[in-house]
Amino acid sequence: MNAARTARPARAARAPRAIRTCRVALSAGTALLAAALLAGCGTGDGTGNATEDGAATSRAAPASLPADHRTPEGTLLVADFGADTVTFVDPERGPIESVKVGKAPYGLVVGEDGRAWVATADAVAVVDTRTRERVDRIPYETDSGPATTGEYRGGGMGIALSPDGERAYVGVNVPDGKGTLEVIDTEKRQVTDTVPVGRRPFDVDVSKDGGEIYATDHDSFDVTVVRADSLKPRRIEVAPYGTEGGLGSWLKPHYAAVRPSDGKLLLPFEGEKLVVLDPRTGESDIEPMTANTHQHGAQVTDDGTLFAVGTGPIDPSEDEGPSLTMRTKDGKEKVFPLEGPHEDVAVSGDGGTAYVTGGFTRDGFWNGVTVIDLKSGDTRRLAAGERPLGIAVL
User: Are β-strands 123-128 and 115-119 bridged in parallel, bridged antiparallel, or unpaired?
Assistant: First the structure.
């Protein structure tokens, strides 16, 4: 079991941060070593045991279901980026059942009607989470090339629903080009509009009133704000470390969360800086963070608590390992160390437990979810799907 560590003050900004990049022109042996170091060398299965190929396999016996076979409340749903499925997971015992949705599913969102909208490489799949059945598949209008797998694959990434559930918004990555935001009519189950956004839209969020959609564009260092009525896009640069590294930079926006109190976007960077962006004015403030680790997934609960997933160090000689940061609305942080890289996070309905997916977009992933007791800091690893990324608590 791991216990949370006490947060320490953020270090002063270091000049090398602005030029740290992903090195792609490496020999095969060097590339493997670098990937292991940058990813934190986290491998294993749901029980914490390493597997021969560095990935993990779900070996838990299927969890039991109620007599009517309906999915119980509190079940986890994860997107299996390493397969063509989503997996339903009992938070105590592990996998219940997997449902085919399409190649390399990334993000997912669940509506109040119990339907999940899953962004895959070539379509949005619609899954009835009560009966665990895929009920539809909606191809993209955007040509993003052949449906492939891996970190840079084209197709759907971030996805969100309008507050009334009438629209789904999915960010579509177009390799080597700018992405699009596709608008789906959830009743007709068809794409009605496409909007140009930035490169690799990792995350999509919607304002509380449904009036704006926010695409967090990783490779263009920006957030695209789209008006829901006119679908007019507006770009806001988000680059607290600058843009010097270009496409090779690690220091880009990944995920955002909409703060309930004022609608501002919260974007964590490197466990050092939290960008608080006002999407109406384009102005932002930067607040210090304490985890000192490369950060991806971000979620905020109704009380304003932010959860940010730390994937591991960029530079193992200076940075900390993987973690989950829990940051209260007044800026106090509690950092939970994790074993190996993770990607995204969801929180239980009572706010007492966090579920952090071990899929990760780069090497070092594992096939499971880390379950964290947010009061005690205790953690346990739970087998869950194949390279799980997106997650929701049903």
Answer: antiparallel
